[in-house]
Specification:
The structure holds 2 protein chains of 2 kinds. Chain A is an all-beta fold. Chain A has no helices and 11 strands. In chain A, the strands form 2 sheets. In chain A, strands 2, 4, 5, 6, 9, 10 and 11 form a 7-stranded mixed beta sheet that branches. Chain A has a 4-stranded antiparallel beta sheet with strand order 1-3-8-7, with no helix packed on it. In chain A, a hairpin with a 6-residue loop joins strand 4 and strand 5. Chain B is mainly β. In chain B, a hairpin with a 2-residue loop joins strand 7 and strand 8. Classes of the chains: A mainly beta, B mainly beta. At the A-B interface, strand 5 and strand 10 of A face strand 4, strand 5 and strand 10 of B.
């Protein structure tokens, strides 16, 4: 069965960086992309960007450009999201989500979420 | 960017009611529209993809419709487990965008 398993919660100071991992199993990793979505406490869902696990192409939300980098390691079927220069408003649960072309496999499987807390 | 305007932002309803939630896109998105349900402290769950296709395992009381700029999620007969927050998502063009959510509460 398809599973996305994320790394554990993180506490970071303002200005630091965080790197969240997302290990995929149960499907051919390179046949799909991974999107990252975050949710601040009590707020809605925010799409952060996407990476193709096939060729590494990316597309990031404009507001995060320059601070976010998404990568994949096909040898371990793992996706990574690194966010730099953290601010208090980056405090959120971060989700990795499988994304395939068309509609059938769009946002169908989600990781369990990783809470990132930014606090001095 | 495509804006997704979801309405209402909150509503209360009773078990057995028929409920409709609407998402309006600021420009056409074909049928690249999905609906999600999220309960407090839980991971979002996809209900509908491609505007009107029911996710496997989701009860048939959930349905989706629409194309272009107007989309609806309908719950034909509310059950106690349906009280949650619902989000639409367009994935027609970057940046993908979510609606602001509809919190469905018990009346």
């Amino acid at each position: 069965q398809v599973q996305l398993v994320q790394s554990g919660a993180e506490v970071k100071k303002p200005g630091a960086s965080v790197k969240v991992s997302c290990k995929a199993s149960g499907y051919t990793f390179t046949s799909y992309g991974i999107s990252w979505v975050r949710q601040a406490p009590g707020q809605g869902l925010e799409w952060m960007g996407w990476i193709s696990a096939y060729n590494g192409n990316t597309n990031y939300a404009q507001k995060l450009q320059g601070r976010v980098t998404m990568t994949t390691d096909t040898s371990t079927s793992t996706a990574y999201m690194e966010l730099r220069s953290l601010r208090s408003d980056d405090t959120a649960v971060y989700y990795c989500v499988r994304y395939g072309p068309g509609g059938v496999a769009a946002f169908d499987y989600w990781g369990q979420g990783t809470l990132v807390t930014v606090s001095s | 960017d495509i804006q997704m305007t979801q309405s209402p932002s909150a509503m209360s309803a009773s078990v057995g009611d028929r409920v409709t939630i609407t998402c309006r896109a600021s420009q056409g998105i074909s049928n690249y529209l999905a609906w999600f349900q999220q309960k407090p402290g839980k991971v979002p769950k996809r209900l509908i993809y491609a505007s009107s296709s029911l996710q496997s395992g989701v009860p048939s009381r959930f349905s989706g419709s629409g194309s272009g700029t107007e989309f609806t999620l309908t719950i034909s007969s509310l059950q106690p487990e349906d009280f949650a927050t619902y989000y639409c998502l367009q994935h027609n063009s970057y940046p993908y965008t979510f609606g602001q959510g509809t919190k469905l509460e018990i009346k």
